[in-house]
Amino acid sequence: MIDSLTREQVLQRAGRRCEYCLLHEDDDPLFTFHIEHIIAKQHGGTDALSNLALACHQDNLRKGPNLTGIDPVTRQLVRLFNPRRHNGSKHFRWAYSTDGPYIRKNCSERSASAMTRAQ
Ligand SMILES: [Zn+2]
C-alpha cells in the first residue's frame, strides 16, 4: 500500500503526467492515475520512490507486472520502457488526429504488452 505522502511525491515528480505516455491526469477525467511499480513486487520490486512511476489507467493495465515483451515486428524479446532509466523523448512520438487532440505513437504499439522497448 502506497501512503498518501509517497503518492504525492510520485505525482509531483511526474508533473502529474503518465510516465509512459506523458498524458496529463487532467486529460483523463474518467480514471485516476495509478502509482505503478516499475519492477513489480512479484519480481522483487519495492515501494521505494525509485521503483514507483505514475501511470495512466491504460498503460498500467497494459504493462501489468511485465518487465519484457515481444516486439511483433522483430519477434525479439525486448525490455520495457523504464522511466527511471530511459529517456522518454527517444521512445515516444506525438501526432495529431481528427479523433482527438493527439494520438501517441511509440514502440509500445508494437510490443506485445504495448509498452515501448528499451535500447
Ligand atoms: Zn499512459
What is the structure about, briefly put?
14% of the residues lie in helices and 23% in strands. The chain is of the alpha+beta class and 119 residues long.
Explain what you see.
By secondary structure, this protein is of the alpha+beta class. It has one domain (4-109). The chain has 2 helices and 6 strands. It has helices spanning 4-13, 57-63; strands at residues 34-37, 52-55, 68-70, 77-79, 92-97, 100-106. The strands form 3 sheets. Strands 1-2 form a two-stranded antiparallel ribbon. Strands 3-4 form a two-stranded antiparallel ribbon. It is globular and about 40 Å long. Bound molecules: zinc ion. Residues 18, 20-21, 23, 55-56, 58-59 line the site of zinc ion (ZN).
Q: Which percent band covers the strand fraction?
A: 15-25%
Shape: globular
Q: In angstroms, what is the radius of gyration?
A: 14 Å
* Largest sheet properties: 2 strands, antiparallel
Count of helical stretches: 2
Give the terminus-to-terminus CA distance.
Answer: 32 Å
Summed up, the domain count is 1
In sequence order, what are the helices and strands, one letter per element?
A: HEEHEEEE
Low-confidence stretches: 100-119
Structural class: alpha+beta
- Number of E-type strands: 6
Bound molecules: zinc ion
Overall average residue pLDDT: 78
Strand order of the largest sheet: 1-2
Helical content, roughly? 10-25%
Assembly of the depicted chains: single chain
